[in-house]
Design brief:
Blueprint (H helix, E strand, L loop, with lengths): L1 H18 L10 E2 L5 E5 L2 H15 L17 E6 L6 E10 L2 E10 L3 E7 L5 E6 L3
Antiparallel strand pairs: 1-2, 2-5, 3-4, 4-5, 6-7
Length: 133
């Protein structure tokens, strides 16, 4: 009986986790235990291209009108509000990590959300957060 309960519980958790992965991302992204999609890029240019692909999947905005911070360890930190559900926001960013870049696509509720702080090459510390729109 315990095994049956454990199996049913695992199926429920798997189902919940699968349903939480319900938004589109470009090929190559993997779902993580942080409830976000991750792509590991070898270069900044590839990371920015992957961010642009993801942004185009979730926004009608012209990608040329969105800032890329070339000199930063976080060259991209963009958001777009879901067209069908104004309570959801898709956050897209890439961050220098080791000798490559992590590209992250994450959906959050449209509420003030702190992500992390990072020290730039010049010693300046920046806080990355989303402020409800």
């Amino acid at each position: 009986m315990r095994q049956l309960i454990l199996i049913v519980w695992m199926l429920i958790l798997t189902s919940i986790d699968t349903h939480s992965q319900n938004y589109d991302v470009p090929s190559g992204f993997k779902w993580t235990d942080k409830k976000e999609y991750l792509y590991i890029a070898k270069s900044k240019d590839l990371a920015i291209d992957k961010c642009k692909e993801a942004f185009n999947m979730h926004s009608d905005m012209d990608i040329d009108n969105v800032s890329v911070y070339e000199g930063s360890k976080v060259p991209v930190f963009w958001y777009t509000i879901d067209k069908m559900n104004k309570k959801l926001v898709t956050i897209i960013y890439c961050i220098e990590y080791g000798d490559g870049y992590d590209v992250v696509v994450k959906q959050i509720k449209n509420k003030d959300t702190y992500f992390f702080s990072i020290e730039e090459n010049d010693g300046e510390v920046i806080d990355l957060f989303y402020v409800k729109q």
